[in-house]
UniProtKB/TrEMBL annotation:
Transmembrane segments: none
Designated name of the protein: SAM-dependent methyltransferase
Record Gene3D superfamilies: Vaccinia Virus protein VP39 (3.40.50.150)
GO process annotations (BP): methylation
Length: 199
């Protein structure tokens, strides 16, 4: 049985994100991916950034099965088995990483997951390490495109705790946990690439 799941958005945005990660990630070391989902992103990044080791994670058992199946199908040696990791949990099952990547989680999880993301990252990332986010955000409280207004409404209909977040609110949480100001790059489909560094 093939446990691989697919997400159309991952196939569409993976190369744009990879191009940004080439500029952001260290030349070598361990990259923790939070909320790896189906696993399509992590295998694409690992295949193209062979000097790095990737540690995928997800709180959902079905997602972890998909990640493991993708790793096996691509025969990648620089991807560790997926961890059961909930970003909102006070303790993570990993003590150190050289970089952290989190794609499309913040808007499709409760705010507690964002708070936990930065609290956990503060514990495991060394000074100078990047924390890379990708997704839809509001800026100064305003949506960046009409499509994001509709997306926000759809998210909140799924769960009132979800929703497109204010980038300034995310940056304030980052600052509270020892990260510098964000480096922001506009990406396709009204998404943003947001990178913080541990200071």
């Amino acid at each position: 049985m093939d446990h691989r799941q697919t997400a159309p958005a991952a196939a569409r945005n993976r190369d744009a994100i990879l191009a940004r990660l080439r500029d952001v990630l260290p030349p070598e070391g361990l990259v923790l991916e939070i909320a790896s989902g189906a696993g399509q992103h992590v295998v694409h990044f690992a295949a193209n950034l062979a000097a790095l080791t990737f540690q995928p994670s997800d709180p959902d058992a079905n997602a972890r099965a998909s990640i493991a199946a993708w790793i096996a199908s691509e025969n990648l040696k620089n991807v560790a088995p997926p961890l059961a990791l909930d970003a909102a949990a006070p303790d993570w099952p990993i003590a150190h990483a050289d970089a952290l990547v989190c794609i499309n989680m913040i808007h499709i999880s409760p705010w507690a997951a964002t708070l936990g993301l930065f609290a956990g990252a503060e514990k495991i990332l060394p000074v100078g390490a990047p924390l890379y986010l990708y997704g839809a955000y509001k800026r100064a409280g305003v949506h960046t495109a009409p499509s994001n207004i509709a997306f926000d409404a759809w998210l909140r209909a799924q769960n009132p705790a979800f929703g497109v977040r204010d980038l300034e609110a995310v940056a304030a949480v980052a600052e509270d946990h020892g990260f510098g100001p964000p480096d922001i790059v506009e990406m396709p489909a009204n998404n943003l690439s947001v990178m913080f560094r541990r200071v």
